[in-house]
């Protein structure tokens, strides 16, 4: 039987353009330092308002990835 263990972390992506770009930025950055990313879940959308306009989009994400077994390192 294949036993697997997963880790779940929370990250926040930021963009000046859109929530979609903020999500992409977060996943691309996490992919640069974490192996085995398998899924994500958007948990919160928020933003920054300056001078009555949206100046920043923020997306909170849960990201799941598989922990490697000792023999896979």
Structural account:
7% of the residues are buried. The mean pLDDT is 93. With 73 residues, the protein is an alpha+beta fold. The protein contains 1 helix and 3 strands; from the N terminus they run E-H-E-E. The protein has a single domain (5-72), classed as 2-Layer Sandwich (Dodecin subunit-like), CATH 3.30.1660. The radius of gyration is 15 Å and the shape is elongated. Strand 2 (37-50) and strand 3 (53-67) form a beta hairpin.
Structural class: alpha+beta
Quick check: average pLDDT? 93
Q: Work out the count of structural domains.
A: 1
Instruction: Give, in spatial order, the strands making up the sheet with the most strands.
Output: 1-3-2
Order of helices and strands: EHEE
Could you tell me the strand content as a percent range?
Answer: over 45%
Contiguous runs where pLDDT drops below 50 for at least 5 residues: none
Largest sheet: 3 strands, antiparallel
Percentage of residues in helical conformation: 10-25%
- CATH level 4 superfamily: Flavin-binding protein dodecin
CATH class value:
Alpha Beta
Q: Work out the radius of gyration.
A: 15 Å
Shape: elongated
CATH topology: Dodecin subunit-like
Which CATH architecture would you pick? 2-Layer Sandwich
Number of helices: 1
